[in-house]
Write a structure and sequence with these properties.
about 425 residues, mainly alpha, elongated
């Protein structure tokens, strides 16, 4: 997984978004299936690489072009604002110049922090830890070195930075306690609030994350990562309009970070603003053309806009880049179905279910495609399986009702005509 890349959800996230609208009836089809479109890709909240030790204006995070693949989803470092300083109140000192002047007493601290940031960005975790330890030795009262060490410890865990990815994870809870310890002495240090909020997102504590990240943004409104993480917290809390506002601001502050644009596209989708979502995903792909999640999300957006022909190449590319991602496969199968390639659709849905047999949208899509082929018994079995997986999901019930109506109409037809329709 690339550095900072994440899906803001766990395995249960595979079908959260649900159907994005019923497909229009194809000419000559008497069925009205409730086609299921799997969830959009999950939101990253570690897209940038803001750094405690780097000077303002230094580029951070993935820039133009395909981002490097990074193991373990290493969290992005704290904030590009408020670089390493030795004063007790981090708000009171000016930001350092891009290079320390000769004789500057803070120069050694800044150098160690900048080296730690660079090492962390390259996944040289041992070296990063050593530089942050040196920074802490140079300025024991300053929180930057301790926040740096916290990030290194998080990176060493190898966990994806994903919402609710690791509920009650004991090591993450210890890191939250470390962040609290930093904040007890430096309650106005925005990067510490940001780290605490991001950790709480991974732990699935949306209210706690919302409180911490709101504090981070209040202390430093110029950090795109803080706004992006706050947008994720708002989404996790069901406040999609506030989430959209934060993600729009994050993308304005860091316009060349493709994952922020992908997050923004997903927020647009959740607000029903499909054309703006498509534009945002396209911008993200122009910056990072080999990102599986963005291809998958753009394909899903095109499907929701009834443009299966535009969706198909992006979903194919997504499955090439991430062949074990079941949600990409079920959306690809749905695109095949919408194009009338029913045999390919069924084959692809079965591939998705071989990877994730509990993916409700794949069972729904499989059942609806089988119904279109007249294989009613198999269709009903697939739809009942989807219903059993999530009794609260209305889509399997709607599809089963459609299937029952279709079969009733089929029985009402003269025998020859009914047999002909059943074999189409």
């Amino acid at each position: 997984m690339r550095r900072g890349s994440a899906r803001a959800g766990s395995r249960a996230s595979a079908d959260v978004a649900g159907a994005l609208g019923r497909a229009p009836r194809r000419r000559g089809s008497s069925a009205r299936p409730s086609w299921a479109l799997a969830a959009l890709g999950w939101l990253c909240f570690g897209c940038g690489n803001g750094a405690v030790g780097a000077p303002p204006g230094t580029p951070h995070g993935e820039e133009v072009g395909p981002p490097p693949q990074r193991p373990g989803g290493v969290p992005a470092f704290a904030s590009r604002a408020d670089p390493g300083r030795a004063a007790p109140d981090p708000r009171t000192l000016p930001r350092p110049a891009p290079s320390a002047a000769p004789g500057d007493p803070e120069a050694p601290l800044r150098t160690e922090l900048a080296r730690g940031d660079a090492a962390l960005a390259e996944d040289r975790l041992q070296a990063a830890g050593a530089h942050y330890a040196n920074a802490l030795q140079l300025a024991p009262a300053h929180p930057a070195g301790r926040v740096g060490q916290l990030r290194v410890r998080w990176a060493e865990l190898g966990l994806p930075t994903a919402y609710a990815e690791a509920p009650r994870h004991p090591e993450l809870e210890r890191l939250v306690a470390l962040a609290d310890d930093v904040l007890a002495g430096h309650g106005v240090y925005a990067p510490a609030w940001l780290e605490k909020g991001r950790l709480l997102l991974v732990l699935g504590d949306a209210p706690g994350a919302l409180a911490s990240l709101s504090r981070a943004v209040a202390l430093d409104g110029s950090d795109p990562e803080a706004h992006s993480a706050l947008g994720i917290a708002y989404l996790a809390s069901g406040e999609s309009q506030k989430a959209l506002e934060e993600l729009e601001l994050a993308s304005r502050l860091a316009p060349n970070e493709p994952e922020r644009l992908t997050n923004l596209g997903t927020a647009y989708m959740l607000r029903g603003r499909v054309s703006e979502a498509i534009a945002s995903y396209r911008r993200a792909l122009a910056l990072g053309p080999d990102d599986a999640r963005t291809h998958g999300d753009l394909g899903a957006a095109y499907l929701s806009d009834n443009r299966a022909d535009r969706a198909l190449p992006h979903l194919l590319r997504a499955t090439q880049l991430a062949p074990r991602r079941a949600t990409f496969l079920t959306n690809l199968g749905y695109a095949y179905q919408r194009q009338g390639q029913l045999a390919k659709a069924i084959e692809t849905q079965r591939l998705a279910l071989a990877i994730d047999p509990e993916l409700g949208s794949a069972w729904i899509n499989l059942g609806n495609t089988l119904a279109e082929l007249g294989q009613y018994e198999e269709a009903a079995a697939a739809l009942h399986r989807a219903e059993a997986l999530d009794p609260s999901d209305p889509r399997p019930k709607s599809s089963l009702q459609d299937l029952a109506e279709l079969r009733e109409r089929q029985l009402a037809l003269p025998p020859a005509q009914g047999a002909d329709k059943a074999t189409k």
